[in-house]
Amino acid sequence: MQHDDVVWAIINKTHCSHKVTTKTQHFCRNEYNLTGLCSRSSCPLANSKYATIREENGIIYLYMKTAERVMFPAKQWEKVKLSRNFEKAIYQINENLLYWPAFIQSKCKQRFVKITQYLIRMRKLKLRRVKELVPIQRKIERRERRREEKALVAARIDNAIEKQLLERLKKGTYNDIYNFPQMAFDAALKAEEISSESESEKEDEDEREMELEPELEKELEKTVEETDEFIEANSDMDSDDESDSGRKENVDVQSDFESDTSDIEDMAVKMTSRKKPRVEIEYETEPIASVSRKKIKQ
Fold first, then answer.
1. DSSP-derived secondary structure for 50-111
2. What range(s) does the Ribosomal eL28/Mak16 domain occupy (predicted)?
């Protein structure tokens, strides 16, 4: 049988591997300790009847030890899973520790409350977005930069060699001796076709512009000529009117002619008064005068 007083006397006065001494207090590092303090009531080694609460992977368990199972270390601690519901877990603790000391019952409940609280805080922290500090490895970055630069240089050399080989194949220097990949040859041909199409489009646009320029010049010349002709015609008519009006002729004109001319003049005045833009009306009096002369001779 285990003698608790003897065990405690040895642990308290001599060395204990779980004991941590400070200037003010003694602590216990045993994982089954209920309070974390090194004392007679809370020591798991010096008490044959002992209970504690532990958490494993987010699940809380009640561990109980009795004197009957001390001789079997593998079966020494009885493990009871507690419910996630707080009230049900407290009920389980009270039911399993019904005839146990009041100190162990109260300390088990306190430990259960603390464990549930820090589990809740852990779940909340996991749901939050936390900034992680990532160390910068300078040597690896330099190594990667050098490799990238070397790869770029190698790629440029490969492209230049590929272009030269394609040009030689087009010229027919190899005479179908080497087997060159058809994909690269087709890609080069497509690139050349696109460039030739763009050049032909530019040439077509230039030709269209060159064709349109003489047509525009001709239209401008026509408009200038029409305006010149219109001005010259007006000047000729004015000169003819002035020459005719400057001459004096003794001609007998009938009253009908006077009425006709007066009507025409009235119409011209009305037309000019109605319309704002300038309107020129031309009428001849010479043929009427010649007719009246023939009548007088007869």
1. EEEEEEETTEEEEEEE-GGGTT-GGGSEEEEEPPSSHHHHHHHHHHHTTTS-HHHHHHHHHH
2. 6-118
